[in-house]
Amino acid sequence: MRHIISMLLENEAGALSRVAGLFSARGYNIESLTVAPTEDPTLSRLTLVTSGSDDIIEQITKQLNKLVDVVKLLDLTEGTHIEREMLLIKVTVEGPMREEVKRLVDIFRGRIVDVTEASYVIELTGTSDKLDAFIQAVGGAGILETVRSGVSGIARGERSLRV
Amino acid sequence: MELTGADILVRCLQDEGVEYIFGYPGGAALHIYDALYKQDKVKHILVRHEQGAAHAADGYARSTGRPGVVLVTSGPGVTNTVTGIATAYMDSSPLVILSGQVATSLIGNDAFQEVDAVGITRPCVKHNFLVKDVRDLAATIKKAFYIATTGRPGPVLVDIPKDVTAHKTEYEYPKSVSMRSYNPVTKGHPGQIKRAVDLILAAKQPMFYTGGGVILGEASAALTELVRVLGYPITQTLMGLGAFPATDPRFVGMLGMHGTYEANMAMHECDVLIAVGARFDDRVTGDVSKFCPNARIVHVDIDPSSISKNVPVEIPIVGAAGFVLEEMIKQIKASKKQPDREALAGWWKKIDEWRKLNCLDYDRESQLIKPQFVLEKLYELTAGDAYVTSDVGQHQMWAAQFYKFDRPRRWINSGGLGTMGFGLPAAMGVQMAHPEATVCCVTGEASIQMCIQELSTCKQYDLPIKIVNLNNRYMGMVRQWQEFFYDRRYSHSYMDALPDFVKLAESYGHAGLKIEKPGDVEAALREALKQKDRLVFLDFITDQTENVYPMIVAGKGQNEMHLKPCKAVVPTDRELA
């Protein structure tokens, strides 16, 4: 099953490689990973998407908690949460496709952020599923490049990941 | 007064109460070596290879419970310690490794003797640090010792660039350390302990299965009391030997691949399994789907990630072994419930039947020296009181089977990583820590050659280690597997071109003895043990065909042991010549 695990890391050199190294050393999957400092500059927030059986996910969270640089950890998928990922996609658009792609962008509530005679750059935010759906829908136009930010997430309501 | 980083480092070691450090100098560490020269509180032991330093510090740590300290230079200095660090990591041994690094201005420039020490060691340390500012040095060293020795212990590396050891700042060693991201447990959940006690008292066929965590947690006395109060059988892992006295009849021997028949059968048939400080390693469980099929399992471990990792557990208790076991004793003594003595008597009867098979028996009439015989004699002649280190292979298993350890921290071996070359340098660390004790290194002619250069260190520091070399001219365990699983194709397991170990020992300034007949074994051991002030290298020429039994073949269940020694068909030295 797919899990979104979010953690607060000491903002130290090498902290990220400890997390990444753990996954490769123990043969766990990382589907996506994002990391950036928080409002407290000594802490970074790292969010990763992984998948595995309940046993594997239990081991992953235990092993992550064991890392000295991991301050606190939350499996967002254990409760209600908001998940977002951003996509930047560059597509070739000529002739009638220009209108067609613009309509698609509106339907998905994206934005065209760069326009040339031959291409659009589109920005779209949403769940990973939504981004997948958009990429599929726009596939008719030639995709030149896609950039995805990886998943970020936050728990709904009272549940919070904080020190 | 401002001190240089090098002086600060040495002051930190003094304030930590460090007695010995094991190391080897080099460019990036020279300021530190200069600071060491100017004092005499911390004694430096100069090894012959940095791997030896890590193993020696490890031996020191395992035999004392205090952290072992290693000091090496950058580049090859630190890469040479990696095997030793990984060995310590797998067996949860507290080490602090101090490595020199090129100056901060050169880091990343492929400078001379530069290596990414923090990156290379990351997967095999509990934690590591790169100190970039001398003002962080003392606090980092404090953290390193704290992390290495608390919770589940392990190695911690501190990489120190050369300019940091030259820069000056005020020295103050922190009195305490608190880290928001590292708070090891010290107790255990009372509710879980209560549940466990209820289950333990209701057992009909109970079994204790304990490991190295009991020793690391200084919980031997509590374990011994608990097992004796209950009267339950106990088995111990390779790493756990000595935590509970081996001569107590409640001990049914080691378990696992080369464990006793009675221990493995009792595991297989038990209804309640009490695992303490053990991690259900594959060499213990065999096929996990067949592991303890009838058992409800209680697992006490300080590391939550060890619980339910390989085998699902009914009652997990995350906590320090000593605290949890003492709490269990209290609750059991206060409880109205008592163990079911009748069921227990029946259980013991069953175990005694298994015992009658005498699974460790070997051919005592042999004209060749049987390795088991050497270890039996070693046990007898040292009255079970020696510190025994070992290397890895058949001799390691025989030492574990035949030397009855009654006390913790006496059996020092590389269980997790299985590092050949561990035994001799580890024995140096043990002997440094216990100068009056008898320290024996049980080894083989293949393993000993992996760190043989340390014979020179032993001479320099007058370490009177007794090396018991079980010389069968084969990498015995490799040969055994080739015999069983590769249709006797003995690919590269014969040790050709061996040195004359007696002459080799003598050339290093030690005594050497070669023993070729069973009748000479006892006299040779007596002679060696009598020599309190010098290292004696005992080269026992043993039966090449001997295999380690019993054996559970990898992937088989605990109740599927091979017991009967089959006569091995092994080309002898003469045929190979």
Automatic annotation (TrEMBL), chain A:
EC number: 2.2.1.6
One GO MF term attached to the UniProt entry: acetolactate synthase regulator activity
Pathway in which the depicted protein is active: Amino-acid biosynthesis; L-isoleucine biosynthesis; L-isoleucine from 2-oxobutanoate: step 1/4; Amino-acid biosynthesis; L-valine biosynthesis; L-valine from pyruvate: step 1/4
Sequence ranges assigned to domain ACT in this UniProt record: 4-78
Gene3D superfamilies the record matches: 3.30.70.260, ACT-like. Chain A, domain 2
PROSITE patterns found in the cross-reference section: ACT
Description of how the protein assembles with itself and partners: Dimer of large and small chains.
NCBIfam families the record matches: acolac_sm (TIGR00119), PRK11895.1 (NF008864)
Family: Belongs to the acetolactate synthase small subunit family.
Entry protein name: Acetolactate synthase small subunit
Lineage: Bacteria, Pseudomonadati, Pseudomonadota, Candidatus Muproteobacteria
Automatic annotation (TrEMBL), chain B:
PANTHER family, per database record: ACETOLACTATE SYNTHASE CATALYTIC SUBUNIT, MITOCHONDRIAL (PTHR18968:SF13), THIAMINE PYROPHOSPHATE ENZYMES (PTHR18968)
Cofactors demanded by this protein: thiamine diphosphate; Mg(2+)
Assigned GO CC terms: acetolactate synthase complex
Comment on bound cofactor: Binds 1 thiamine pyrophosphate per subunit.
Record keywords, A-Z: Amino-acid biosynthesis, Branched-chain amino acid biosynthesis, FAD, Flavoprotein, Magnesium, Metal-binding, Thiamine pyrophosphate, Transferase
Gene Ontology molecular function: acetolactate synthase activity; flavin adenine dinucleotide binding; magnesium ion binding; thiamine pyrophosphate binding
Domain Thiamine pyrophosphate enzyme central, residue spans: 193-327
A Pfam family annotated for this UniProt entry: TPP_enzyme_M
Residues annotated as domain Thiamine pyrophosphate enzyme N-terminal TPP-binding: 4-119
Pathway: Amino-acid biosynthesis; L-isoleucine biosynthesis; L-isoleucine from 2-oxobutanoate: step 1/4; Amino-acid biosynthesis; L-valine biosynthesis; L-valine from pyruvate: step 1/4
Protein family according to the UniProt entry: Belongs to the TPP enzyme family.
Organism: Candidatus Muproteobacteria bacterium RBG_16_65_34
GO BP term (any one): L-valine biosynthetic process
Reactions catalysed, as given in the entry: 2 pyruvate + H(+) = (2S)-2-acetolactate + CO2
Enzyme class: transferase
Record EC number: 2.2.1.6
Domain Thiamine pyrophosphate enzyme TPP-binding: from-to ranges: 391-539
Record's protein name: Acetolactate synthase
Coiled coil start-end: none
